[in-house]
Amino acid sequence: DKKIVVLISGSGSNLQAIIDSIEAGTIAGRISAVISNKADAYGLTRAQNAGIATQVLNHKQFADRAAFDQALQESIDSYQPDLVVLAGFMRILTPEFVRHYAGRLFNIHPSLLPLYKGLHTHQRALEAGDREHGCTVHFVTEELDGGPLVVQAPIPVTADDDADSLQQRVHTLEHRIYPLAVSWFCAGRLKLTDAGVVLDGEHLPPSGFR
Ligand code: GAR
């Protein structure tokens, strides 16, 4: 089984979806630890309920971003993970950190990347009048929310949608595509190469698997 470390800052519903998939036997991996930069993140409770080790690293207790990321890296590496999963981890990571985990660092983002990198994605999709919105799992690179895409799930935007209703529907889809991407990786089916993302020996399009 592959070893996974999950980083969170909040509710951890994506963490829960991955825990559930592991327990259901659809991911050939196990979560070695869940690390949060917030002591009150509900995802820590989810991890404890599943018998997973937890750790809090409060970024405010470090002199700067580099010092925090270095401590975070040391903590993660103590578990020797095959895969590091950002699941609502709301911190920008240094290039050094990201490079260290090249090809084994995933993020999930609540938009159809490359649209709406950063925050307030649902509101921005509404304001743009988009007919379609969604979420994306991608490999993390130095460009914020800019790494190669693995899988995207679209939803239609309807006339009576607001940011909350979009967020709810997108979140539900996140809980399907994140375990899927993690299962591919853990089964050895997914690789990041110089020429892009490869799934089962085939190059994915730049938009990822849809
Ligand atoms: C998710 O919607 C995820 O896409 C988003 O935070 C939420 C975490 O929810 N991530 C980002 O915005 C990253 N910039 P969760 O804690 O319930 O999994």
Percentage of helical residues? 25-40%
What's the tally of helices?
Answer: 6
> Order of strands across the widest beta sheet?
3-2-1-4-5-6-7
Count of β-strands: 10
List of distinct ligands in this structure: glycinamide ribonucleotide
Q: What's the SSE pattern? A: EHEHEHEHEHEEHEEE
Give the termini separation.
26 Å
Low-confidence stretches are none
- What's the average pLDDT? 98
- Identify the overall geometry: globular
Determine the structural class based on helices, strands and strand pairing: alpha/beta
How much strand content do the residues show? 25-35%
Oligomeric state of the chains in view: single chain
Largest sheet: 7 strands, mixed
Rounded to an integer in angstroms, the radius of gyration calculated over CA atoms is 16 Å
What does this structure look like?
- By secondary structure, the chain is of the alpha/beta class.
- The protein is built from 6 helices and 10 strands.
- Helix content is 33%, strand content 26%.
- α1 runs parallel beside α6.
- The site of glycinamide ribonucleotide (GAR) has 14 residues, from α1, β5 and α6.
Could you give the topology of this structure?
Elements: E1 2-8, H1 13-24, E2 29-36, H2 42-49, E3 53-56, H3 65-77, E4 83-86, H4 95-100, E5 105-109, H5 121-127, E6 132-139, E7 149-156, H6 163-186, E8 190-193, E9 196-199, E10 202-203
Helix pairs in contact: 1-6
The protein binds glycinamide ribonucleotide.
Glycinamide ribonucleotide (GAR) binds at residues 8, 10-14, 43, 87-88, 108-110, 171, 174.
